[in-house]
Amino acid sequence: MLRTPFIVLLVNALLWMIQAQLNHYISPWNISIFVGGLAVAFCSLRLSYREGLRALLLTGLWFDAATPVPFGLHAFLFLLCQALVFTFRSRLAREETMVGMIIAAATNLGMMFAMAIGLMHRSPAPLQQLPRLIADSLVSFCVVMLIAGWSFKLQEQTLEIAGVSLRREQRGVV
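Given the sequence above, the corresponding structure tokens read:
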């Protein structure tokens, strides 16, 4: 269905707005958070491969539009992580919230470090950014673990209200 990626995009846009607002409030402490792993975890664990790709491409472009990184970087990382998680999702209890939380935290951490390594050349003293990267990673980890259950439930409920049955899609009935 074509409406599923757009519904997921709307909820991910809400997640991005919450991230932006939290970053605004914690900016005096020189800390920022990133919660893109939540979007990747939900799409790769609960949606079909094509719908996950569509939703994450749109979400990645949404994240890219407001950040000072090369356009397409978030989209590329989201799609790469989705492909990696999707390859071994059959071995996971993918409908369990705790599994989703662990996958979200791991992908979030991986994307943060990949972006840091990829953008390291922009900094005049890249190794001096390491303490901030560690602090940002720890704070992001805490935030992702705190809101992961809420985020997954919000995604599922929004899709259910829109008439999309995740259980039927996962079983291949639709």
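Residues 22 and 167 are 33 Å apart (CA to CA). Try to locate this feature in the token string yourself.
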